[in-house]
């Protein structure tokens, strides 16, 4: 299971803590508090982006280094900036931030696909 899947599983329960209490569901957000779980999720994602930067820096190809460092740096910066603007007592604000996480995930998939296409094109043209 990827860290993204763990973050998504933890984060999806944050806006519905009150509903979990009413229905007797013992979620992670209810046990430890929605604010703590929110920041645990943010830190897990920031660690992922930091690892992505380190992996990018270890690449032998300049364009991979460039894409990985800039891409993960932008993802990490925007995530941190938006996380600090979230009103954690507002269900709408936390749901909106959850959408930001999904957008980051979809953009990451697009970036990985573009890297694959570029690698395939380079190999087909004999640039490897």
UniProtKB/TrEMBL annotation:
UniProt source species:
Artemisia annua (Sweet wormwood)
Primary subcellular site in the record, as a coarse category: plastid
User: What are its GO cellular component terms?
Assistant: chloroplast membrane
Question: What's the protein here called?
Answer: UbiA prenyltransferase family
Query: Which UniProt keyword terms apply here?
Result: Membrane, Transferase, Transmembrane, Transmembrane helix
Coiled-coil regions listed in the entry: none
Which Pfam families is this protein grouped with?
A: UbiA (PF01040)
Where are the bilayer-spanning segments? 37-56, 62-80
- What family, per the record? Belongs to the UbiA prenyltransferase family.
Keyword Coiled coil attached: no
> How is it placed in the membrane, per its record?
Multi-pass membrane protein
| Entry superkingdom | Eukaryota
This entry's Gene Ontology molecular function terms read: transferase activity, transferring alkyl or aryl (other than methyl) groups
Q: Where in the cell is it found?
A: Plastid, Chloroplast membrane
């Amino acid at each position: 299971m990827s860290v993204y899947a763990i973050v998504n599983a933890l984060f999806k329960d944050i806006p519905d803590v009150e509903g979990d209490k009413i229905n007797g569901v013992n979620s992670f957000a209810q046990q430890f508090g929605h604010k703590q779980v929110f920041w645990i999720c943010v830190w897990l994602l920031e660690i992922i982006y930091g690892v992505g930067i380190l992996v990018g820096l270890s690449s032998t190809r300049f364009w991979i280094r460039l894409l990985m460092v800039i891409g993960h740096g932008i993802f990490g910066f925007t995530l941190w900036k938006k996380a600090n603007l979230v009103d954690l007592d507002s269900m709408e604000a936390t749901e909106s931030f959850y959408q930001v996480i999904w957008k980051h995930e979809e953009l990451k998939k697009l970036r990985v696909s573009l890297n694959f296409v570029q690698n395939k094109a380079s190999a087909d043209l004999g640039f490897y």
